[in-house]
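Team,

Forwarding the record for the chain on the shared tracking sheet. I've put the sequence and predicted structure together so nobody has to dig through attachments.
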Amino acid sequence: MGYILKIEDLSKNFYLHEQKQEIRSCNHISFALNKGEFVGIVGTSGAGKSTVLRCIYRTYLATTGKVLYDSLASGLIDLVRADEQTIIRLRKAEIGYVSQFLSTLPRTTAKQHVIAGALDAGFSRQEAAERAEEMLRYFRLNENLWDIYPNTFSGGEKLRLNLAHAMVKAPRLLLLDEPTASLDNDTKLLVKELLTRLKKEGTSMIGIFHDLEFMEGLCDHIYNISGGRFTAEH
């Protein structure tokens, strides 16, 4: 099997009860992500880009279609129909997700948050601590921030912590939802270098970026989405 992920006829509708109106966010999306590939998705705000990623990660449950994932532990799984325990296990061990927004457990410091990501991926506590420190340094988070609760961080610091938490796992599948939105150009370069390294090491990725220049040299395929549908491949 060449693909790690195959999307078949994926649609997601939202029903607004007060307005008694159904909104179609993404419609009849189909594509495959081969192992070690990077697929980019571009389109205007509200076109349905993030909905596709969230249906893959299962924070949204697709209305119709299949999301077939070739898992390391259990073989081929339809993420639309998998039970919650399977989804939680895959998120911990195999599938990473980076968004613009930071979500951490209460009373968890920045370093503890990154260590937790490495532990979920199966590293020993010593390896997890070493990898966490390496990743925090890589993303230039000052050591005086490591033992602080990240709710006090700036937007850019929170996003760099998000990246460190997801990438410390070196996941088999990495989903990226505007991961460079509030970063300066130097940090964007760090992100691109690390994504390139992860790709060479075998991580398969799907990314949403508004910065088309950032995507150059990273993506094997780029799909344009408009009105919830893929309209072209670059």
